[in-house]
User: Which sequence fits this backbone?
């Protein structure tokens, strides 16, 4: 499930929209906190071919399926 759009909200918190239209707000610190500093968050972009969220010129990326499953799991934690 490729990422189509994202917007930073605060620190590691992002608004994500996937290619199926699903929208989630998630905190990505558990996925990228050890690899991407707060100062590096502004390097975020979507790889146009793979649809993954990348940081630091592609040195750190989150594979689309991993990001989607993480976002869905985070949403279920909030709903519980």
Assistant:
């Amino acid at each position: 499930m490729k990422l189509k759009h994202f917007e930073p909200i605060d620190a590691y918190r992002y608004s994500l929209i996937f290619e199926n239209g699903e929208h989630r707000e998630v905190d990505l610190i558990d996925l990228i906190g050890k690899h991407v500093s707060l100062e590096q968050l502004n390097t975020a972009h979507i790889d146009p071919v793979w649809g993954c969220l990348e940081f630091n010129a592609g040195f750190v990326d989150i594979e689309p399926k991993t990001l989607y499953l993480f976002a869905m799991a985070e949403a279920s934690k909030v709903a519980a």
